[in-house]
TrEMBL record:
The lineage of its organism: Bacteria, Bacillati, Actinomycetota, Actinomycetes, Micrococcales. Belongs to the GcvP family. The keyword Oxidoreductase applies. The gene is gcvP. Residues 21-425, 455-729 form the Glycine cleavage system P-protein N-terminal domain. Pfam families: GcvP2_C (PF21478), GDC-P (PF02347). Residues 773-894 form the Glycine dehydrogenase C-terminal domain. Its EC number is 1.4.4.2. It catalyses: N(6)-[(R)-lipoyl]-L-lysyl-[glycine-cleavage complex H protein] + glycine + H(+) = N(6)-[(R)-S(8)-aminomethyldihydrolipoyl]-L-lysyl-[glycine-cleavage complex H protein] + CO2. It comes from Microbacterium sediminis. This is Glycine dehydrogenase (decarboxylating).
Amino acid sequence: MVEALGLSVREEIAETRELTDPLVAQAIPAAIRADGATSGAIPVRGVSEAEALAELRALAAKNRVLSPMIGLGYSDTITPSVIQRNVFENPSWYTAYTPYQPEISQGRLEALLNFQTMVGELAGLPVANASMLDESTAVAEGMLLARRAVRGGSNVFAVDADALPQTKAVLAVRAEAVGIELVEVDLAGGETLPAELFGALIQYPGASGRVWDPSAVIDAVHVAGGQAVVAADIMALVVLASPGSMGADIVVGSTQRFGVPLGFGGPHAGYMAVRQGLERQLPGRLVGVSVDADGAPAYRLALQTREQHIRREKATSNICTAQVLLAVMAAMYAVYHGPDGLRSIASGIAMRTSVLKQQLASGGVEILHEQFFDTIRARVPGRAAEIVANARERGVLLHLVDDDTVGISVGEATTDADVAAVREAFGVAADAPFGRPLGAAKDGSRVAIVGMRDSGIPRELFRRDEILTHPVFRTHHSETAMMRYLKRLADSDYALDRGMIPLGSCTMKLNAATAMMAVSWPEFSRVHPFAPREDVAGSLELIHQLEGWLADLTGYDAVSLQPNAGSQGELAGLLAIRGYHRSRGDEHRDVCLIPSSAHGTNAASAVLAGMRVVVVACDELGNVDLADLRAKIAEHADTLAALMITYPSTHGVYEADVLDITAAVHEAGGQVYIDGANLNALLGHARFGDLGGDVSHLNLHKTFAIPHGGGGPGVGPVAAKAHLAPFLPSHPLAQDPTEGIGPVSAAPYGSASILPISWAYIRMMGLEGLTEATDAAVLGANYIAARLADHYPVLYTGAEGRVAHECILDLRPLKAATGISNDDVAKRLIDYGFHAPTMSFPVAGTLMVEPTESEDRAELDRFIDAMIQIKAEAERVAAGEWPADDNPLVNAPHTAATLVGDWAHAYTREEAVFPAGITTAKYWPPVRRIDGAYGDRNLVCACPPMEAFA
């Protein structure tokens, strides 16, 4: 029934059921339990892998895969097979976690540094981050960054009238919440900017396809004291002058065109690059170069990478999940094709577009813009719908702009047959003349695009500077070389395909291969997010089924799958609460109560939703302090908007008083937001809606088996009770429109292409299997806590002495007694072949351990034995057997290179690298411990020259 759970774990559960049932009864308070509660939407029993795949095939068959030439920020692309097989479908890449432990993440960090370098060079700016969630939210983050950079003064942000429609809609939602006034301006048409502003958005090329020189507008923005944000098509930047060369301060966009499937809207890696001086305000993650203990170059996350957890309500962004897997794909697309290959692809797109434009124009069709890269708009009074229908009959999807206008976008995957079908749809004769082909020619370090008559690219905007100059983009152009490069990087990393990743609060469960398979099917991967409803019936059916199952599992009435990260789900839930209060005339309700133990994104999300954060204390057991909560409610009774809590708590325990907590908030007129991060400890036994929750976000990349992918993709659906449903996200271009506040992500259904993973996981598990998964997770965490309690104090437990699905090990006594820190223990675990647990969250000096239901007892025992042995090693340091400054813990991790040559340490080579005994399955970290402070003092965020590695 539940093949995805893993046979060995299921057998252990069956054998220990007499122990498991009493354990769960002790751990989960009786007052909240509603075992097996369901509205009937979710199947009780799961199906086999073969049956689940057959059902998915039936859904996929209801989609119609046509050639998408709609454009609007999404383009059909070709994923090189070597990248699809060795990255997209490779568990070494997709089962990895965010690279917070850099010594075991050098492969994905190098790939992300390639991404940053690629983006920075194409944008023409010195610093780029390691990806954003999508283009529209990247624009929103760029707007907020511009406001921070200006500080004070105007609240006006000018928006290009030719910006993407979904971007305008996302900006409207985000701006309204924080008091920003948007003013739409026809920038290409010469309209004047507002007299006062803090920034402006320029779309380059425009949504209509128009290519124009925005330099004068950028200068005008600067004269007005603002920052210029340019949303740029990354493929166009291969052949067009860079925004940075025109004076842009911030450049954002999407890298979907670089080999990432359309996927009905995502996941795709957005990007952001900034001018010098803004790098320390960048949202999201930034990869930098530092050195390890031997002085060798090594990569790490830099600066404010986890600023939400440090600055909380003062954070500048709530982004926690990036799009690492997709950023890796886009970077490797550039590595594989190199600058010449990219120029060939981009110039080929421009060539086809120009040929099509000439053919249509020669057939009497009016083309609105003479300057373009890949998109043209045809004026056909009263005939637009007819022509779009004609094209669809011929297998091509065009953009119905209005009754008189058709939009046509050419992509890398557009064929001559597609172009012919478009021409026929307009009724243009087949013998319409062709132009001369567009080619790319190199002249030393300068690149000139030559050739084509009536080129859509104005000559003054041809890109003249060289791109992608680092050797990494000029080396791996054969499949053999590319395959070996990807293998080398993957071998540097630690992912779930090597062993357990016991990260508390992160739920690193296995992503079953069967659940992953449909992601690569063209019926799901090659679908445009704005395709006609009748062409995506299968995807919509899957989406609505999944929404119903999630609502059933959580006890809510409505679910939106649009948020493409947990942070965006948090924001959407809080915006729903805000919208609800405002609809009742309670605009003054803006206080959000948040326990001190909460995830840092909670506070940051509240601020971005226009709320004021008030912190509630926790008691000595890690629970919400009821007395302090009641005092804060009384103090803010008239302005209370919401309480955000995580259940089970961030401390890894089930709070027995949760019903009292939610009742107190409701009595004061507030709403309750229950963070769904720890839903893996509740499924089948309790539901958020029954606990008094009004709204929650869920993490499909945690509880519902979507891979973390080295730090993304993620999906953060938001679920709500009926009274909040009208205030959930909506989208102007959705195939199934709903009432709502507007979009929080670029695509109507977020990262839709990976939703079949969670669909398959739930379908194979059924309610029974999901309940067993909860039992296994709780059993594993309590087993670890019980076996390690004599060695490391377990910081928080429930009333019965039990933990939930994770436990916090207190290493502060160990440091006091031996001088060995939790950082030393984390690095030493690498020598034992483990990824470290979560460090110093939610309590400094601790490790939070979450085994998940995917791990069998043998793997748990291996981890426990390692932790016990590390404790013994620390005691040898305390006893003076090993010096405090020269022992295997403070020197960890040990690389293979450390064994070569003279050995001058107080411990043996074998103790260094084989502490648990010699094994052929040894993981060798590629670098020694990395100096984080050095990297922040000497910020390098692009590929260093090769001589740095000599």
